[in-house]
Structures are given as C-alpha cells and as structure tokens.
Design brief:
- With about 180 residues, this protein is mostly beta strands.
- It has 1 helix and 11 strands; from the N terminus they run αβββββββββββ.
- It has a 3-stranded antiparallel sheet, with no helix packed on it.
Length: about 180
C-alpha cells in the first residue's frame, strides 16, 4: 500500500513538473530534486532557466524563492527538526531574464551545542542527560559520561530535549 502511494505521488510530481516546463509556464516555486553527493554550491543559467544548487540540511528546511524585479532571493527557512547531514538541493526557476541577480539567505537555526552518543534506545525513558552541565544525551545502557564543567550559553535546554529517535538517543530541537 505504501509503495503504491509513493508511486502515485512521484507520478503526480512528474506530471506537474512536465506541465509547467513544456507549457513554458512561469514557475517561481522551488523544485527540490533530492540530495546529491556533491555539496558544491553553484548557479547555472540557460535559455531562461536558472538552476541553483544549494547546500542545506537534508531535512527540516525549505527553500523559498522570492522575486524582486530582476533579483531572485532564495531563503532557506528552518521548518522542523534539522538532520545531522547536509545535502545539495537543486532549485529551478523558469522565465528568468539574462540580466538576473541572485541572493541566497540562510536562516540561522537555533544554536545548541550539546552532544549525542547515539546509544541504543527503545523509548524516550531510555535516554538521559549526562555530563557536568547535562549537555550530553546518552542511553541509560551506556557508561556515564564525564565532561569539563565549563558552562556555555549554547547548552540552553529550553529548545532541545534528549529523546529516542529511530532507536538512538540524541538531542531534538524545538522551534
């Protein structure tokens, strides 16, 4: 059932993309084409199509395209829990004049600098805060962690919690 739903979604996305492309319809929405191994950021322009490859978090962000005259502003917005990995996303903008300008703005995510051991867990109660300042998220099945007792402002916990995610203890940020 899930595979059929995924196939339908992929076909729908392909049809929408093809319709916009072949009808030369102005598309200012982001067409994020997944993650790539190459994390170099780049910009290409060809026949009215602007392609921007931007490095961003693999999940938890959206890229919004705004147009102001001939300037295209790409804004990376934090919309959820950020992943630990980075990916390249390809954004295509159609009907762009040759004398375009581009600007990329990246919202600064909440800066939390606690560490995670990614120890095994089955539920949130298996995960505990450890270290002198409680800045380490570890599994209760792991040995205690000892850290130097130096407080940093980025250890603030009002927007982070030590949780079990996909069977691993790790910090989860709230926005």
């Amino acid at each position: 059932m899930r595979l059929a739903t995924l196939v339908i979604l992929l076909l729908s996305a392909t049809i929408v993309y093809a319709y916009a492309y072949f009808n030369d319809k102005k598309v200012e929405e982001v067409a994020a084409n997944g993650c790539f191994d190459d994390l170099n950021e780049s910009v290409w322009y060809s026949s009215g199509v602007l392609i921007v490859k931007i490095t961003t978090y693999c999940c938890g962000t959206e890229i919004e395209v705004k147009k102001d005259g001939k300037e295209y502003v790409l804004v990376e917005k934090v919309v959820g829990d950020l992943c630990r990995c980075f990916c390249s996303k390809e954004i295509k903008i159609f009907n762009v004049p040759q004398d375009y300008k581009i600007k990329i703005i990246k919202e600064k995510p909440f800066e939390f600098c606690g560490t995670s051991t990614y120890g095994k867990c089955k539920n949130d109660s298996d995960c505990v805060r450890d270290g002198c300042n409680g800045e380490v998220c570890r599994s209760k099945f792991e040995n205690p962690v000892f850290t130097i007792c130096i407080w940093k402002d980025c250890y603030r916990f009002e927007k982070a919690a030590c949780k079990c995610v996909d069977g691993k203890c790790q910090w989860v940020q709230y926005f």
